[in-house]
Design goal:
Layout lengths: L1 E2 L8 E2 L4 E2 L4 E4 L1 E3 L4 E2 L4 E4 L11 E3 L4 E2 L4 E4 L5 E3 L4 E2 L4 E8 L4 E2 L4 E7 L4 E2 L4 E3 L2 E2 L3 E3 L4 E2 L2 H4 L3 E2 L2 H24 L4
Parallel strand pairs: 1-4, 2-5, 3-6, 4-7, 5-8, 6-9, 7-10, 8-11, 9-12, 10-13, 11-13, 12-14, 13-15, 14-16, 15-17, 15-18, 16-19, 17-20
Antiparallel strand pairs: 19-21
Length: 186
C-alpha cells in the first residue's frame, strides 16, 4: 500500500521497482530503480523534526528490502540505503541511519543511529547503534556493537561473505523482474 503521511508527503517509487501488495510505504520515501520490497515490509517516513519538516527515507537502485523489514526514523531524521544493498527478513532500520552501497544486513538485525560503510556485512540477529562501521567490515551474527570501541574487535569482510552479499542482491534484482511480469495476474 502506497499512502501519504499526515504532512502530505507521498512516496516516489521508480516504475521498475516491485512493491509487494502487502507492504506499506508511507510518506517521504524514495524508492529507486529495480528495488524489491518484500511482503509485509513497512517503510514509514512520517515524524517531523523540530523545524516541522523531515528528511526522506531513500532506498537506492537494485537494493532489496525483504519480508517483514521495518524502516522508520526518529524526529524526521534521514535514512539512506545505498545501491545494491540487502536488508534481510525482519530487520529494523531506525533512523538516523546511513547504509552505503553493497551492504548486507542479516535477518532480525537492528540498526539505529549509525552509519555502515560500503561493502560491509552485518550478519543475523545483531544490534548496531550509535557508531560508524567502516567500509568492508564483517560483523558476526548475534553481535552487539554500541561504540567504536566495540568495532575494534571486528575483522574485515572475507571474500566469501562479500560474494554471498552480492549474490543476494543480484537474486533480488531478478525477483523484481519476475514479479513485475506477473504483478497483474490473479
Amino acid at each position: 500500500m502506497i499512502r501519504k503521511n499526515p504532512s502530505g508527503h507521498l512516496p516516489r517509487v521508480a516504475e521498475s521497482a516491485f512493491v509487494d501488495p502487502t507492504a506499506i510505504i508511507c510518506g517521504k520515501v524514495v524508492i529507486g530503480e529495480n528495488v524489491f520490497i518484500g511482503p509485509y515490509a513497512v517503510i514509514r517516513a512520517d515524524e517531523l523534526n523540530a523545524e516541522g519538516d523531515m528528511e526522506p527515507i531513500i532506498i537506492g537502485d537494485n537494493s532489496n528490502i525483504q519480508d517483514g523489514v521495518v524502516i522508520h526514523s526518529k524526529s524526521g531524521a534521514a535514512v539512506t540505503i545505498g545501491e545494491n544493498s540487502s536488508i534481510a527478513h525482519r530487520s529494523i532500520i531506525h533512523g538516523p541511519c546511513h547504509i552505503a552501497n553493497r551492504v548486507f544486513i542479516g535477518f532480525n538485525t537492528v540498526l539505529f543511529n549509525c552509519k555502515v560503510g560500503e561493502g560491509s556485512v552485518i550478519r543475523h540477529n545483531s544490534v548496531v547503534e550509535d557508531c560508524e562501521v567502516p567500509p568492508s567490515f564483517y560483523i558476526p551474527s548475534t553481535s552487539n556493537i554500541h561504540s567504536e570501541t566495540d568495532l575494534a574487535q571486528i575483522q574485515p569482510v572475507t571474500p566469501d561473505a562479500s560474494s554471498f552479499s552480492e549474490d543476494v542482491a543480484q537474486t533480488n534484482v531478478r525477483l523484481v523482474q519476475g514479479y513485475k511480469q506477473i504483478q497483474n495476474e490473479l
